[in-house]
Design goal:
The chain is of the alpha+beta class. The protein has one domain. About 25% of the residues lie in helices and about 25% in strands. It has a four-stranded antiparallel sheet, covered by helices on one side. A hairpin with a 2-residue loop joins strand 1 and strand 2 (about 20-25). It is elongated and about 40 Å long. About 20% of the residues are buried.
Length: about 80
């Protein structure tokens, strides 16, 4: 489990092969990222849909998921 620095939401960050999967438990929020071949950044390989019952907006989730995925990628040595 990953708690963003702003503490606004609990996210789960998992690695599945070449993908970093970020989800928010008890919501339908889910994003997958993978390292772009030959590039020093991640690309989104899956997209999230709205969840009206989630404690944060879709945009807030996307921002937090991006930060969480990048932090995980750095820890894995995928990004410098």
């Amino acid at each position: 489990m990953f708690l963003p620095r702003d503490g606004s939401a609990n996210l789960r960050v998992e690695v599945d092969g070449i993908d970093i999967i970020v989800t928010m438990p008890l919501t339908s929020f889910r994003m997958a990222y993978r390292k772009a071949q030959g590039n020093p950044w991640l690309i989104a390989s899956d997209y999230v849909r709205d969840d009206r019952d989630a404690p944060i907006t879709r945009a807030e989730f996307l921002a937090q998921a991006w930060r969480a995925a990048n932090e995980k990628a750095r820890k894995l040595g995928w990004l410098v």
